[in-house]
Fold:
Amino acid sequence: MPDRKVADIMTRDLTALTRETSLQQAARLFSLMRITGLPVVDDKQHVVGFLSEADIIEAISPRSRDRSGIFVMDFGEIARKMHRAGDAAVRDYMTEHPITVAETRDIGSVSEIMLTEGVKILPVVRDDILIGTVNRADVCSALMEDHWES
Amino acid sequence: MILTVTLNPSVDKVLEVPGLALATLNRAKDTTTQPGGKGVNIAFMLRALNHEITAMGFAGDGPGRFIQNSLRDAGITTAFTLLPGKTRTNYVLVDPAAGSLTELRSPGPDVTESDIAVLRTTFERMLGLVDMVVIAGSLPPGVDPGFCAELASLADAHGVKVALNAREEVMNVALDARPFLAEPDLRDLDTYGGYDLTTGEGRLALATHVAQSANIAVINAGHEVLCVSGEHVALVEVPACGLLGRIRLDDALLAGVIDATTRGDSLEDIAREGVAAALAAATSPNGQFTSREDIQTCLDRVEVAPHA
Structure:
């Protein structure tokens, strides 16, 4: 089935963050859902950003690079980052204007986006409104099925 | 699009146990496991009638994951608020020889104020996308009956119709939000708010009382269904149905009623479709009708009785 579309494999779930969601709540959701990121939406369900677990790790990471590029532990920086992250909202750490895909898009082009942009999850939109997500596992599984069928 | 809100979904295990007895070993002849909770059941059945559905509520781990996956597999979009605890499991023990149903219901996981706030935010976000909200079923520990009234008021403020099925303590406060459709949950009750449910007069008085706050009041007494809208009354006697069919008859009825209201049908046709939907579900192995044709085949068996 070479013309399979995003609509055939997407996860029809509207769980999303808002700009005001705390980083702590976002991390809890990632853990509960066992996922690596979620779209950020406004009150009209328009996708305005994307927050990944990497964004959260970056926000609270106890590591920082010295001038030679070597990771060093700066305990003062750790304390400051943890303190900031505790109060922080998603808006401060999300990727704004994330790549989204339409449900009508073919899976092959979605896999290319995922590879070239290095993203694991893409919000799926209809008329700019979030209607679900598509992740690497879904795409991988679909491509494998197509490969074996052909 | 229709949004269903199930604050306390469940996984329902139906066990057929011939000769069921307490305090001894019983062996089940047959077992089925299904997603449950009133709002969830109604979501499945409205989806079977080709409505676009988003299902939300609280969902824990384990069974909660099973419920969400089952909904999505049926083409229903999900937007559940996730809880760290486990979604409840209910048991229905069927003894065909004795003609009995024994239900064991769990209370559900604890819900915190923070969880309620997350669900409220999700609900408000969804209101811009839907035409009707269905709020149905029990409340988990930690959720005040007033919360359903709050959701109904929020929907009303956004111009979204509300269909509500609830026990008395919830209905009493939620009627203030003037829902479009209200069906008190009368299961296992002989009286409700002082109304005698064992008499036709008592049921009509209750329906009239509910219809003072809701556009359409639905009273399901098992053997008859009463729909009241303003001064208008439609009464339908429910033909007998099988034992298993009784499990989700109420949910199927509400799904049929809601479907008919979306077409703007007359009160008589709304009542007829509700009962036909219940009959269609009663003849299905899992207690849910699976298509509009299922309901159509049962419509001939349903007639609106003359009402004085």
In short: The interface with chain A takes residues 54, 61, 68, 72, 75-80, 82-84, 114, 118, 121-122, 124-126, 128-129 of chain B (CB under 8 Å). The mean pLDDT of chain B is 92. The longest strand of chain B covers residues 53-61.
